[in-house]
Amino acid sequence: MTTNHSDEPPIEVFLYGAVRTYGDSEKNDTYASILTEKNYDFYLFQKIFNDEQNENNNNLTLFMKALPDHGVLYGDHDKNVNRTESAPHRHFQEGVALFYRKDRWELDGEEHGNIWYETKPKEVAPQVVVWGLFHEKTIEGYRTGKSVYVYATHFWPNSGGKRAVPSPLADRETKIVDLMTKIASRKYSDVPVIIGADFNSGEDSPLIRFLKGEEVEIAGQPQKCPVPLVDSLRTVYPFAERKAVASASNSIGRIRLTNNLTSKGRCDYIFVSSSLNPADFRLIKTKTQSGVFPSYHYPQHATLSW
User: Fold this and answer.
1) Partner of 297 for a Cys bridge, out of 17, 25, 156, 214, CB 3.0 to 4.6 A?
2) Is 59 helix (H, G, I), strand (E, B) or coil?
3) What is the pLDDT of residues 31-83, one digit of tens each?
4) Could you tell me the pTM of the whole model?
5) Contact call for residues 249 and 288 (beta carbons, < 8 A)
6) Would you give the distance in Å from CA 271 to the centre of its chain?
7) How far apart are CA 35 and CA 39, in angstroms?
8) What is the pLDDT of residues 92-124, one digit of tens each?
9) Does the domain formed by 11-305 have CATH 3.40.50.1970?
10) Domains of the chain: which residue ranges?
11) Which parts of 199-263 fold into alpha helices (H)?
């Protein structure tokens, strides 16, 4: 395991996918307990509910209450849906959220926003990327000179399973190539990058190999990532056993926990620029009082040193 030899405080990153509760108050209480266990610098959430008619099913509001000292950037997947006409049955939306510590980080006034990628067929909600440039500051409010770009996103699976999006695998991979091209052309190219995402892709997939800097074939063309990234988990645990995906009994039945230390089963990643050093990594396996996991994803926590 690597360690932080710098006197600079590390960056604590928390990633959590599929934070849905469907109004389950016990799960909501467990989420709040997990979130407040540590004062993370950045919380990156995928598949987070934003139910405007049911506060108990509005994870975005619940998390904002649990993290009152954090600012938030949010993007709906369904940006083009008119809920009163096109989808009156769906009075909530699902999206991606990025929370940040306001006492340590200042959001850049210009460098932040959402990026949407349309899916095929168009009836399926687009994928959204929420991003921002954050400047570190002192307790007195002065900038330290250190900054970081942070991105949060979720890309739908392309094949297999009832919830899969019926579009070619190359369609998703092409979007990731476009995203990394956009990141490569960011305004401050020397500022490091953190990407927390559910890519729905295993470690050995062309997509993940592309993100790590390997040249792979995408849509029939050789592609190499213009901003090669480092997998925080594999930096800390390079030799973790790659075995079958673990399962656990949950209130919704037998489910697959997709974020254990495996190759085939991984789908969530905390990727960082090579200038940031993943000093520690852990999975958080907190259960509800009833003994079930609140989500079918494990939360991830990465400690990054400058």
Assistant:
1) 17
2) helix
3) 888 899 999 999 999 888 777 777 767 888 888 999 999 999 998 876 554 33
4) 0.85
5) no
6) 10
7) 8
8) 577 899 999 999 999 999 999 999 887 665 545
9) no
10) 11-305
11) 206-211, 232-236
